[in-house]
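About this split. The held-out portion is used to measure sequence recovery: a designer receives only the structure tokens and must propose an amino acid at every position. Recovery is the fraction of positions where the proposal matches the reference. Here is one held-out target exactly as it appears in the evaluation file.
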């Protein structure tokens, strides 16, 4: 397993300059290894003076394998590795490291719900002072619904460098997602994803899903006049090849930093 390049950019805001780092990383289902990788990449971001570092969808436990082939194993594993937010051991470890480093972090995980057998596809935001909030994926795909319960809210959270609204993968295909966050006061739109290539199309530069990924990132930024940050897996995991392309897009729809594919 290897970490792929991170991308960082700085933006001038009302309170000065903010540096944002976004990660493209090869996923793993080894929770211990994944946690170590999160902590290491947070240190790398902090060394580059990042104020915020963003990880992909279900970055902690790894996006589940192809449902058509592994549905029973996938669901069992998701339940087994799910953690409560903010009290899960891995969640606590990441939050403690963010506090030690003095940075903000957004990461994804299988969240254990309060009802038996219920889990959510969740993003967590934490900072130097601890837990800030979470977002549960609203637009859960048809096959994903066998694993995750859908969320039902679009929370926006205050940070020293602006108000953050979060979305996950399929959410960005619906313009109303980002518009709702913008109307609630979000200054920065952060999207974590597990976005694969179309099977059989090996060239990322011409891959259909890669083209859509770029289109949605730029469109959602420009149509809402907001910064848009995306974080995606690279490499292979669970029978899928992921495109990378973690990037930062400015409010005019221009890509100002990218990990590339």
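Reference sequence for scoring:
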């Amino acid at each position: 397993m290897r970490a792929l390049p991170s991308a960082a950019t700085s933006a001038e805001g009302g309170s000065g300059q903010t540096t944002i780092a976004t990660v493209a990383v090869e996923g793993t289902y080894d929770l211990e290894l994944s946690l170590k990788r999160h902590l290491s990449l947070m240190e790398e971001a902090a060394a580059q003076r990042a104020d915020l570092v963003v990880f992909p969808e279900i970055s902690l436990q790894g996006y589940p394998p192809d449902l058509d082939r592994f549905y029973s194993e996938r669901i069992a594993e998701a339940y087994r590795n799910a953690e409560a937010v903010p009290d899960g051991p891995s969640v606590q470890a990441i939050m403690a490291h963010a506090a030690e480093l003095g940075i903000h972090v957004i990461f994804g995980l299988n969240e254990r719900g309060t009802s038996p057998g219920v889990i959510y596809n969740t993003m967590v935001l934490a900072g130097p002072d601890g837990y800030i909030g979470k977002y549960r994926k609203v637009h859960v795909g048809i096959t994903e619904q066998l694993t995750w319960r859908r969320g039902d809210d679009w929370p926006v959270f205050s940070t020293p460098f602006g108000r953050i609204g979060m979305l996950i993968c399929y959410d960005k295909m619906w313009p109303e997602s980002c518009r709702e966050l913008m109307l609630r006061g979000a200054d920065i739109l952060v999207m974590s994803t597990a976005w694969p290539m179309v099977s059989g199309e090996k060239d990322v530069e011409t891959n259909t899903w890669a083209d859509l990924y770029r289109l949605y990132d730029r469109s959602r930024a420009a149509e809402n006049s907001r910064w848009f940050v995306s974080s995606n897996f690279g490499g292979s995991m669970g029978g899928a090849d992921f495109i990378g392309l973690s990037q930062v897009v400015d409010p005019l729809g221009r890509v100002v930093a990218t990990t590339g594919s």
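Annotator remark: The two ends are 17 Å apart (CA to CA).
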